[in-house]
Specification:
single chain; two-stranded antiparallel sheet; 6 strands
């Protein structure tokens, strides 16, 4: 079945767009057990597998929630075994950083060769786009992208070189690490029995977002998710906040690794900085000697986002002066480049007295200044409200009821910021199961892709083929970083990740520190829904290169040869409620469109099961969660 959107399918796309943008008809009666089961599977997980709604309803919805709140007791061998078979995601931050540094040195060497050949203008372009290295901390200069802005595009000479030489081993190592990180995210979303844990990893990574397109973040982003976010989901918010504050990826992304008390570097540091700049650009010794001294000083980026996004919230009651004082308290919080790990440098720290949110921090506090900032922010009432609101927006409604937010914030404060207690207060609150919240949010592309794989019983397969010039995970990494769009468009079959990029969600490549919007209306537009239906058709039609669906296995031996029986069987397996009359009519009509029976648009005698499944995956009821 061709993965396209023929004219006859536009009806379901238009219907879905109108249904999602116009809201859904909220029920007033309390949810029954099957509806509650479907609700938790879609909110605390990535959707039901075939028949799972009935299994959770029989097991007990509250019992299922409490089980998910203790993931260490859930056996999760299949997902973890699949992740364990990956290669580059298991490399240490030091190994990935070493590959990054080696690639930068190789590019610098190429720059010098071009300069020696008299290509001064081309060399200058290359240096501007490609010469950043970890040692830029010595120069105080950077070619990095500011958070929220697009990453610098590759220059034409770079593209030409790569088209002839192909990617280097170090480039492939970095690209495949990012591609595998995304694939591991999909594996866990689809196969993990610890569904809530996977959703929380996604939530907190988004809350503490970093962008892999900012050069040095690239070798550090795997560790940011695996070593910073994932181990700190269930303890105290203070511990999670501290882990992100010391995360090398975060320190680089929001520039705190460069933030220092203002000082003028000595001759030795100046000489080293000039020599590094000379090597990076190929300039002459005379020109390098004439460069101005590197400067050091305060950078407020992280201090601002720490208060505005990570803790207090935009209306959290702080001033610009507080931002500056927090930034001063965090000077010297940097990274040790050779080991790609957090380091505090006392000589970079502002040792003066500070006043933050009305609290006086005495002089000569050293690293304890930053720790006191985290203590103050982690337990602040504004932080409790901000975190509670974001959790309620993610798990309950785009505009959550204020009374629910207050109850969750109260649980956060009374427990000292204990995340487990906060989750429990939210998921067991009566408002979580309010009928108006059932199906009230639209799935993000990642949620849609993952839930489609779960709903269809898909299995992942190797998409590389024999001896690929560029491994598929490296291609995916390029797409996630906004590169290789032309090459991607020419592929006869795409992976799930490449379809996700087409649907508008490039995980790990989102620029603003806000992370992806939690308001699900962000994802509703006709173009995105066309891409979603194309993906559904490709998935069920065997045109997704790394996933296979066996549609007939969804029916558990039931007779599903007739279109109506097929629709009923899929509906029972995947939904707590029947499809709406309008959805059912469109699905049956489109199922009949290719039938030889042209009389009155009657359903075909034999159902095209992959197509029926694709249409249901593209229906508004499946787009909602």
């Amino acid at each position: 079945m061709k993965a396209s959107t023929p004219k006859m399918l536009l009806g379901i796309i238009l219907m879905t767009t109108g249904w999602l943008t116009g809201g859904h008809a909220a029920e007033s009666s309390p949810l029954n057990e099957r509806e509650k089961a479907a609700h938790v599977l879609n909110r605390l997980g990535y959707g039901p597998r075939p028949g799972e709604i009935d299994r959770v309803a029989e097991f007990g919805v509250e019992k299922w929630i409490r089980t998910q709140l203790t993931p260490e007791k859930i056996e999760d061998g299949k997902a973890e075994q699949m992740v364990a078979k990956l290669t580059y995601i298991h490399k240490t931050p030091q190994e990935l950083t070493k590959a990054y540094q080696a690639e930068i040195r190789a590019r610098q060497a190429r720059n010098r060769e071009r300069a020696a050949a008299g290509k001064a203008e081309e060399n200058a372009q290359m240096a501007k786009g490609d010469s950043h290295s970890m040692m830029d901390e010595m120069t105080g200069e950077s070619s990095q992208t500011e958070p929220g802005k697009s990453a610098p595009t590759e220059t034409a000479p770079t593209k030409v070189r790569r088209s002839f030489e192909g990617p280097s081993e170090n480039e492939l190592t970095l690209a495949q690490a990012l591609g595998e990180l995304h694939h591991a995210k999909l594996i866990r979303a689809v196969y993990s029995e610890r569904q809530l844990e996977q959703v929380l990893v996604d939530f907190w990574f988004n809350h503490f977002n970093v962008d892999a397109r900012k050069q040095l973040v690239r070798p550090l982003i795997v560790s940011h998710e695996q070593d910073t976010i994932r181990p700190n989901l269930w303890g105290s918010f203070r511990d999670l906040l501290a882990a992100t504050a010391k995360s090398p990826a975060m320190l680089v992304y929001l520039d705190n690794w460069r933030s220092t008390v203002a000082y003028e570097p000595g001759e030795t540091e100046t000489r080293i900085a000039r020599r590094l700049k000379q090597k990076a650009t190929g300039m002459s010794e005379e020109a390098a000697a004439a460069l101005p001294k590197p400067t050091r000083g305060l950078n407020e980026n992280y201090g601002r986002e720490l208060m505005e996004l990570h803790t207090l919230g935009v209306d959290g009651g702080y001033s610009q002066k507080d931002v500056q004082e927090v930034a001063r308290a965090l000077t010297g919080w940097t990274i040790l480049p050779q080991k790609a790990e957090f380091q505090f440098r006392p000589q970079w720290h502002d040792q003066g007295e500070k006043v933050i949110l009305g609290k006086t921090f005495p002089a000569n506090g050293g690293q304890k200044d930053g720790e006191r900032v985290l203590d103050l922010l982690a337990t602040h009432p504004s932080t409790a409200h901000h975190i509670a609101y974001k959790l309620c927006q993610r798990f309950v409604a785009d505009k959550p009821p204020e009374e629910l937010v207050k109850r969750v914030a109260s649980a956060f404060l009374s427990s000292g910021g204990n995340l487990h207690a906060t989750y429990e207060a939210l998921f067991l609150d009566k408002a979580f199961f309010a009928p108006e919240n059932f199906g009230a949010k639209t799935k993000s592309p990642f949620e849609f892709a993952s839930s489609s794989l779960r709903a269809s019983g898909a299995e992942f397969v190797d998409a590389n083929g024999p001896a690929p010039r560029v491994p598929v995970r490296a291609l995916e990494a390029g797409a996630l970083l906004g590169r290789g769009q032309e090459r991607m468009s020419r592929l006869p079959r795409k992976t799930v990740t490449l379809h996700l990029v087409e649907m508008g969600q490039s995980n790990y490549g989102w620029g603003p520190p806000t992370g992806f919007p939690e308001d699900s209306s962000t994802w509703v537009n006709s173009g995105a829904l066309v891409s979603r239906l194309n993906y559904a058709l490709a998935l069920t039609g065997g045109q997704v290169s790394d996933a296979r669906v066996h549609a007939r296995t969804l029916f558990a031996g039931k007779d599903a040869d007739m279109a109506e029986e097929a629709v009923d069987a899929i509906t029972r397996n995947l939904f707590a409620r029947p499809l709406s009359d309008s959805t059912r009519r469109v699905v049956l009509a489109q199922s009949a469109a290719d039938s030889s029976d042209k009389n009155a648009g009657a359903p075909p005698a034999v159902a095209d099961l992959p197509k029926v499944l694709a249409l249901i995956l593209g229906a508004p009821e499946f787009q909602r969660r």
